[in-house]
Amino acid sequence: MRSLLVRNPIAIGVFWVIVYLVIVLLPLLILLLYPPAANVGRGFWLDFSVALGFIGLAMMAMQFALTARIRLIEASYGIDLILQFHRYTSVVAFLFILVHPIILFIDNPKTLQLLNFFHAPWRARAAVIATLALILMVVTSIGRKRLKIPYEPWCMAHGILATVSVGFGLSHALGVGHYLGLFWERTVWIGIVLITLWLLVYVRLVKPLFMLRKPYLVEAVIPQRGDVWNLVLQPRGHVGIHFQPGQFAWITLQISPFRMREHPFSIVSSAERPERIEFGIKAVGDFTKTIKDVAPGTKAFVDGPYGVFMTDRYEDSAGFVFIAGGIGITPILSMLVTLADRHDERPLHLIYGSKTWGNITYRQELSALTDKLDLTIVYVLRNPPKDWSGETGYIDKQLLQRYLPKRPATRNYFICAVPKMMDQIELALHESGVPVTHVHLEHFNLV
Predict the structure, then answer these.
(1) I need a labelling partner for 96 at 20 to 30 A (CA). Which of 56, 76, 216, 421 fits?
(2) H-only helix segments in 342-447
(3) Per the confidence metrics, is the pTM higher than 0.70?
């Protein structure tokens, strides 16, 4: 399956989109093909609101699959794109579910009595609980940073609220019964919810059990320029993970993998040497600032690898152009050292933007790679020293056109930087004749 994904990722990606649409629209399709027998006089708006409710509930159930880090799905899009899709579809599902009762109240004001929680039938109370749980989940997710909610308790609450919302939502649909009168219709819905619950169990219990059986030990923490540290791990009692250059993994340090205190970091070491894996970590947050204090011998757990930001997916490319900003060099370094270990002879270009000459992370390692690869490096400094004769300022269209290959469409381009910089470079490449399919981006905002 992996070779198929590498050869034709677009076809596999389309396949998973179709699967998603089929599952989300299946309840609505069932209603269209097998409408309730006693549906005369119920009206268009009532049926329309019910359709929105069913679609919203199905989309909520699918959120469990989107966040389960399923390798076959992740390998088609990358986790960053999947999580963005998860955020957007969660909002859409929320709106569908919220509009469902609003239409009912407008169409038939008498249904407002169902909001009387203590006197309403249990199916109405289930709907109220599901909706309140969904509202709380959306508010705490969108406003987590503003509300200063720590990631670990938020993650736990997020899973609980999602389970409550889907579970009570299904209870409401089964309790109403009018649109799920047939046994097999109820079975389809119960099956969907049971699968979502299994995914929750898999993520919270099964996967940590597998990780617990394959621990790592910290071998060293190596300081680098730019306030970056290399966390070096060695597998204990197993061969380690096999990854592709450019991928990343979630790391849990010192504590059990059942705790939801994990962090994603890019791998910087060679994919040809999985027996010793290194992660590049910039000290910018509460957790990353403590990396330098991690002692050798500390137990670690690794969930991965993940990501589609890798040269191995484009083996027929005539060469590669890498564009990095700051810590964005980490996945690119893994690609370069792996290409060096494979004695790759294709032409490579690296355009690396940094604030100062002293902040250029992995400068020595990159310089050494120029002896092993056909690698051209262009450093772009925002605050250059007085004797600097290289490029200055920002990586823009004019700078790129000075260094792009004569036939830019024959190369694949890998960009890893802050979002604003990536957007500007992506636009500049398109205006320079680079096809959209040849431009690959890596985002950092995964949680």
Answers:
(1) 76
(2) 363-369, 397-403, 419-431
(3) yes
